[in-house]
Automatic annotation (TrEMBL):
One of its GO terms (cellular component) is extracellular region. It catalyses: Endohydrolysis of (1->4)-beta-D-xylosidic linkages in xylans. This is Beta-xylanase. Its EC number is 3.2.1.8. It is found in: Secreted. Its main location: secreted. GO terms for biological process: xylan catabolic process.
């Protein structure tokens, strides 16, 4: 039997979870761990993104998303919906733009009312990665057409589609204090002041070995003080390959540091790793020469990082 979700819940967290992805569902050894009590929550790595759910305008395909929801239901887990509005993995009919502000508002509202309306998930990443590292907004079809109004438009549509789901904004590079974290905090303040529904901030937490922000806990607290909960949503800690025993020990320490920071704050409510095994990590294909970022190795064997998570809970 698994320990991670049980330990997380024993200290008042809602869950310990993992990302997963549909191509992995044929791997029976992988599925035995994913579906075990080790995890109380799953996030679809790709299958609820816009290109997967509305590849052509007003044509919705939820086969893959439904498969994730089925696995969660059968194995007694909650689901994080990921994600609704993001510049990446958009179908070309959206990314190529050419919309008026009114048209794009309808496009966002229609996407959200259909995708969210069909799904019962615990929390949605309604807006994903809105900021550049300097705290300015990413220049994408949403911002360029609507300015920052796309954010309240999306959050309001999500609340209308599912009054019960937690509505989040998710980003990376906000885990430590700094310009980008401040920009996100200012956005939360503005949304709250304007009465826009915003319940949570996702700290992606794609870290580099030895570079976990030292002020992670106080930065979590800076957000929870604004009246939102925080989730660690995409945790992995990458290193230069090939990994050494010393690197894996440092990784254990780093995982413990991250998990402890969330554990210490009541309103940091859950932790999700961006898949539990190096076998299916996005890291090697995204960051050249980097990998070994997850708590289980390529052979689905627990690494020291697993014990670091346990120690942090
Ligand atoms: C990644 C997936 O893991 C990959 O399979 C895909 O090719 C690209 O996207 N931030 C996010 C996630 O919010 O959606 C990204 O997931 C990783 C970075």
């Amino acid at each position: 039997t698994g320990v991670l979700n049980t330990l997380a819940q024993s200290i008042g967290k809602k869950y310990f979870g993992s990302a997963t992805d549909n191509p992995e569902f044929t791997d029976t050894a992988y599925m035995a761990i994913l579906e075990s009590s080790e995890f109380g929550q799953i996030t679809p790595g790709n299958s609820m993104k816009w290109d997967a759910t509305e590849p052509e305008q007003n044509t919705f395909t939820f086969t893959q998303g439904d498969a994730v929801v089925s696995i969660a239901k059968e194995s007694n887990k909650i689901v994080r919906g990921h994600n609704l509005v993001w510049q990446s993995q958009l179908p070309s009919w959206v990314s190529s733009g050419g919309f008026t502000a009114a048209e794009l508002t309808s496009v966002i509202q229609n996407h959200i009312s259909n995708v969210v309306g069909e799904k019962s998930v615990n929390a949605w990443d309604v807006v994903n990665e809105p900021f550049n590292s300097d705290g300015s907004y990413v220049s994408d079809v949403f911002y360029n057409t609507l300015g920052s109004d796309f954010i309240p438009i999306a959050l309001t549509a999500a609340r209308a589609a599912d009054p019960n789901a937690l509505l989040c904004i998710n980003d990376y590079g906000i885990e430590g204090s700094g310009t980008k974290s401040t920009a996100m905090q200012n956005l939360v303040k503005t949304l709250k002041a304007d009465g826009v529904p915003i319940d949570c901030i996702g700290f992606e937490s794609h870290f580099i070995l030895g570079e976990v922000p030292t002020d992670l806990q106080s930065n979590i607290e800076a957000f929870t003080a604004l009246g939102v909960v925080v989730m660690i949503t995409e945790l992995d800690i990458r290193m230069t390959l090939p990994e050494t025993a010393a690197q894996l020990e440092q990784q254990k320490t780093d995982y413990q540091t991250v998990v402890s920071a969330c554990a210490a704050v009541d309103d940091c409510v859950g932790i999700t790793v961006w898949d539990f095994t190096d076998k299916y990590s996005w890291v090697p294909s995204t960051f050249s020469g980097q990998g070994a970022a997850c708590p289980y190795d390529d052979n689905l064997i627990k690494k020291p990082a697993f014990d670091g998570i346990v120690a942090g809970l």
